[in-house]
Specification:
The protein is mainly α. It is built from 15 helices and four strands. Helix content is 53%, strand content 4%.
Length: 343
Amino acid sequence: MLVQRSERRERPATGSEDGGERGPLTLYKVHKYTLALHCSVFASLFNGPRDALEAGSERYKGIPVMDLPDMEEDVRDFLKALYFPSETSRHRHVSSPFRESDTHWAVFPNSYGGILRLSAKYEASIIRNLIVEVLEMEWPDNFEVWSALQATMRDTIDVVLSRNTSGDLTPYYPDPVLAIRLAVDYSIPRVLPMAYYDLMRLLNDDEYIHNPDLARPRRAVNRISALKNDEVQKVIVGRTLLQKMFHKYLSVFRIPYLPECDGSCEDTVQSWYKGLMAEFRHMESDPFLWIHNALELCESDSDTVECGNCIEWRSQQLRRMNHDLWRGLPSYFGLPGILSIWK
């Protein structure tokens, strides 16, 4: 049985060690075998002289008591992960259809902070790896996986907005600020590029000033104070570098030249480019969505271009832009150590 003698009524901000208001004693009845199986610290403790452990423990109704000085919420989430590992994957929505009951996304990934803290403290590597896997699925380092995730999220947004006139997506949108905090504090580097990108597109005020009908998750912006100055700077600098490269690639459409083309397509391509810029001029904070929409528009308008070579050329340029921008994300956000593992 575990005893909480220093329970906090509210969990502090992720990464904070500040004290909180103390609450009543909390008891959990657990199996020593389960603790020892998952946690090296407890395995070492329980493998020692049994008499010494038993003699040194308080008792409650004849059962030995272990006093843990951790936050009650952390212990609750940690034990739940030990006994019910499926709890660690309940937030995945890469392939799951939208459900009205999925409002627990609002606390993701904050609910995993306590599990990571105690996994590090008590050396529960298996549980830690489960949490890391979930975070890496939500902010992946693989473009195909991320694209599938975004398609599902767009479907979710459409459903939510059809039912929610306020446009507040907070209950349905994972929090990139807390993802960054957890990734930095607990060494989960693969999460960082897309978490920074996710936050970058939420922080673009200009986009929402010009298009107030767009839904905006407010939670990430409200919690920006959880980040350190250098982490906020990575978002700002990364956005500048990414948009600079984005416009550099866009310039290729201004003066198209294909040796295989007799020049009859130039006016059509230029018209397509100008229409594209007008259509998506307020989406610079999300280059990958811009390219996604541009590719869809390119395919739907292919019959307006006379030359088949120019049709293929436009698609190739957009896909190359997609590939190059994705490959450069770690460097844009000042994460050179991730380049070698970025997919």
